[in-house]
Design a protein that fits this description.
Layout (H helix, E strand, L loop, with lengths): L2 E10 L2 E10 L10 E7 L6 E4 L1 H9 L3 E2 L1 H10 L1 H13 L4 H68 L4 H9 L1
Parallel strand pairs: 1-5
Antiparallel strand pairs: 1-2, 2-3, 3-4
Helix pairs in contact: 1-3, 3-4
């Protein structure tokens, strides 16, 4: 039985949400699976990936083959690197401590990159909001300037209406004068 590490689609139409699972290669995409390894939510920026790295490495060591997308996710979270380092430990090229030190150093570097990206995204978002607000202020000022002549005309008409006689008799008397 060949095992694949792949994505299992959940969520509603247009809003995908995936489980990362180890499943028999013959099973349907959303069918029976052997073990749930994590989740992947591509609907937010940056995408949220919750992965149990130890379980993923365990399945990789048992011979499970990840699909292309699953392999990218496993690489992003460090499961492929941890599996590679575990292979080095088994062959005697590294000690367990060295492998763990390399993995934690890589993980810290990755966290720093992700936090920088999130900071850049939030900064870009706030700049876009500021630009939109400035543009809206300009549009509002232009509308106010365009409405000033109309307001003056309305004021003149209101004055004329106030001076105008209220009844026909008053109008005839004023005309006779």
């Amino acid at each position: 039985m060949s095992v694949k590490i792949r994505l299992q689609r959940h969520g509603k139409k247009g809003k995908p949400f995936y489980w990362i699972v180890a499943a028999d290669a013959r099973a349907k995409r959303d069918g029976k699976y052997l073990e749930k390894i994590g989740t992947y939510n591509p609907n937010v920026n940056p995408a949220v990936i919750d992965l149990n790295v130890d379980k993923a490495v365990e399945w990789l060591q048992k011979g499970a083959q990840p699909t292309d997308t699953a392999k990218n996710i496993l690489s992003y979270k460090g499961a492929m690197l941890k599996n590679h380092l575990a292979g080095g430990v088994r062959k005697g090229a590294l000690t367990e401590e060295q492998a763990e030190a390399k993995f934690t150093a890589w993980l810290e570097e990755k966290v720093a990159k992700v936090s920088n990206k999130e900071a850049g995204l939030s900064k870009a978002q706030s700049e876009a909001k500021a630009k939109a607000l400035a543009a809206e202020k300009l549009v509002n000022e232009a509308r106010i300037e365009a409405a000033k002549p109309v307001v003056e005309e309305v004021a003149e008409v209101e004055e004329a209406v106030e001076e105008a006689p209220e009844t026909i008799d008053e109008a005839q008397e004023k005309a006779a004068e």
